[in-house]
Amino acid sequence: MPTTPLKIGVIIGSVRTGRFADKVAQWFLSEIGRREDMDVHVIDLSEPALVAELKLTLDATEPREGALTLAQRIGGLDGYVVVTPEYNHGYPASLKLAIDYVYREWRAKPVGFVSYGGLAGGQRAVEQLRQVFAELHAVTLRDTVGFHMAWEQFDEQGRPQDPDGVGKAASVLLDQLAWWGLTLREGRAARPYEG
Fold this sequence. Notes:
Low-confidence stretches: none
Largest sheet: 6 strands, parallel
Structural class: alpha/beta
Mean pLDDT: 91
Radius of gyration: 16 Å
Number of helices: 6
Number of strands: 6
Helix content: 40-55%
Shape: globular
Order of helices and strands: EHEHHEHEHEEH
Strand content: 15-25%
């Protein structure tokens, strides 16, 4: 019996000017775009309106419209893949800010990671994000996609130097995301999560 495609958010966590995230994200979006069981929604934290609203909300006593819109966007999804760099052994402050603006909407949903950085390939950032998402009652996927020395892993057209290796890693990640996404969606429908 066919099921409705999972609504998957691809969250681009870097907001730096000239960021490398664009190459990594575009590659991953092409990988996930091949799936018929997933409907992709990009949440780019560098969107000007989103950046402005998140900055303004820092000083607000009540949530502003932009933060509420982000919560609605996150809440309407069945799962997420976070594309994150590793900065100084951690993940970007912009990503933490966006995660913290949303609370209940993350619950009982799967989160996967595509990371990039130096020798560790962004894995130290991913391990920290696992702790944050556990506190939000989200389920993080075991397998990730990581690009060590990322700037050396892509050609001038933005294609990975090892398309088979990273393509296989992406396939494993997306298969896990599909299983957890469908299982948790059915679970939330049968019995809302109140954890």
